[in-house]
Amino acid sequence: MSKKPSTVLDARALDRTLRRMADQILELNAGTEGLILIGIQRRGVQLAERLGRIIEEREGVTVPRGALDITLYRDDLQTVGPRPVVGATHLPWTLDAQNVVIVDDVLYTGRTVRAALDELADFGRPARIALAVLIDRGGRELPIHADIVGRTITVASGERVDVFVAELDGHDDVVIASRDED
Amino acid sequence: MIGPLGKDLLGLAPLSAEQIRLVLDTAVPFREISERQIKKVPTLRGMTIVNLFFEASTRTRISFEFAEKRLSADTVNVAVAGSSVSKGETLVDTARNLEAMKIDMVVIRHPASGAAQFLAERIESNVINAGDGTNEHPTQGLLDLLTLRDRFGDLTGRRICIVGDVLHSRVARSNIWGLTKLGAEVAVCGPRSLLPNAIGEMGVTVFDRVEAAIEWADALNVLRLQLERMEAGYIPSLREYNRVFGITRARLERAPRDLCILHPGPMNRGVEIDSDVADGPHSVILHQVTNGVAVRMAVLYLLAGGKPELAEAAKKGAS
Cα angle at B19 between B18 and B20, to 5 degrees? Predict the structure, then answer.
C-alpha cells in the first residue's frame, strides 16, 4: 500500500527557501556582476525567474535569465520514446566569461546536470558555473554536487519528490509521494 | 527500436493526426539548434545512418544530411542512380548488405512506389521514405504542414490547393493525407491530363481553372512540372501551361486574400511559377527549406527513441 504524500515545503516555506537561496547566490557571486541565472526545463525555469526577481528587489539590478532544455543531451534517448518532449532552450546572451548559475528543482542522479553542463559548453565558456537546487534528495550516480541547496531530504528509492509551482501547477509546494501514484 | 512513430516512416497515410502533430511539435525546438553557433547536439551520437538514393536529389538529400549531422549521427551517402540492376533484386541485395554492416537507419529514395515499404519489411533498421515513385514523400509533406501551421496556426478549415502535376507527385499525396488529417480542406488544380482519375476519392475538390482555385484558397502548394515525364504529351507546351495554370503576380493580385505560396522545389521559373511570385512577399519557399531540416531532425529523433520497457527505469533516474 502506498503512503500518503507528505509535504516538505508549503508555499510560504518555499518562498522563504528561495529568498535564502537568492542571498546565497549573491554571496557566492559577490554581487550581481556577470551573473546569469539559467533554469533547467521545466520547473527550474520558473525557480530561476523567481530567484531573479528576488535579486532584483534586493539589489535593484536586472539579472539575465535563460532556459535550458537538456532533452537532446540526455544519455538515455532510447528509453524515453513514450514521452520524447523537447522543450525550448533560450540563451540570448554570450556566456563567455560570465558567472552562470544553473537552477533546477530536484537534484537526484546528477545526469540532468551533466547534460546541462555539456549543453552550456556548446554555447560558450563561462568564467564559472555554479549549481543551485531547491531540493537535494541524494542518490547520486555521478560525482556532482550543488553549490546552493534549498533543502536536503532523505527519500527512499520507491518515492519521488514532486515540486509544484504556481506558474505551471496553480499552487506552490514540494511533496514526497510514492512512485505507485505515477 | 520502436518509437512513438513506430519502426519506420513510410508515409503520412499510416500516421494518426496525433502522430503528425507530435512530429510538428517536436520540430519547433529543433529549429533553434540550426540558429546556434555550434549547430550540433549529441542526441544520435554512435548511430549510423545510410542515405540510399536510387534517384537524383539535391535538396532532400542535403536536408537529411544536415539533420543527421546536427544530431551527431554518422552518415554514409550511397548514390545508386543509374544502376542497371533491376529494382527488386537491387533492394533485396541492398537490404542484406545493409543489415550485415550493422547500421541503425536507412533513408531511401527510389523511383518505384512501395520500395521503402519493401525495404522496411526486410530489415530491422528504421527506414525513412525520402520519396518512393508516385506514392509518398512524407518528410516533404510534414515540412509543408509545419510551414502552413507557422502561417495559420490551427489548420482546421484552412483551404489549401495543390496546383500542377498531381498525377506524378508523391508530394501531393503526402500533402493530401496530412492536410486532411489535420482538418484542412484540400483541393487540386491542373490540366485533367495531370490529375489522377480517382483523385476525388481522396476527398479533395477539383478545380479546372486556376483562377477559381486562387479565389477559393488560403494557400497554394505549387508543384514542379516534371519535365522529364512530359515526353508523353500531357500538355500542349510549357508556354501554354504557364498561360493557363502558371502562378503569376497578376493572378495573385486578383486574389480576394493574401495567399501563402509554397513550392517543394526545384522550381521551373516561368513555367509553373513566375520568379516575382517565387521571390515575392507571398512566398514561404525558403521557410519550407529551413523547416525541412527541423522536421527531418524531429523524425530521426522520434524514430531513434523508444524502448518503452526501459522507460520506467529512465523515469526513476530522470534528475
Answer: 90
Query: Which DSSP helix (H) or strand (E) runs through B172?
Result: helix B170-181
**Which of B4, B25, B33 comes nearest A81 by C-beta?**
B4
Q: Which grid cell is B1?
A: 527500436
Residues of A in contact with B4 (CB under 8 A): 81-82, 84
Residue pair B4/B302 in contact (Cβ under 8 Å)? The answer is: yes
The CA distance from B102 to the nearest CA of chain A, in Å, is 17
Cβ within 8 Å of A, B 256-315: 301-302, 304-308, 310-311, 313-315
Three-class DSSP category at B181: helix
- Name the DSSP class of A181: G
Q: How high is the ipTM of this complex?
A: 0.79
- The pTM (predicted TM-score) of the whole model is 0.88
Give the DSSP letter of residue B6. B
- Bridge partners of A99, per DSSP, are A35, A128
Cα B227 from chain centroid (whole Å): 20
Residue found under cell 483562377 = B211
Order of all β-strands in the sheet with A128-136: A65-68, A35-40, A99-107, A128-136, A148-152
Residue B316 near chain A (CB below 8 Å):
yes
Residue range B115-148, pLDDT digits in tens: 999 999 999 999 999 999 999 999 999 999 999 9
Residue B52 gets the label, from left (phi > 0), alpha (psi -120 to 50) or beta, of beta
Chain A residue with minimum CA distance to B27: A86
If one counts every other C-beta atom within 10 angstroms of the C-beta of residue B242, the result is 18
Q: CB distance A87–B29 less than 8 Å?
A: yes
* B254 interfacial to chain A (CB closer than 8 Å): no
Measured CA to CA, the distance from residue B104 to residue B203 in angstroms comes to 37
Q: Do A77 and B33 touch (CB under 8 A)?
A: no
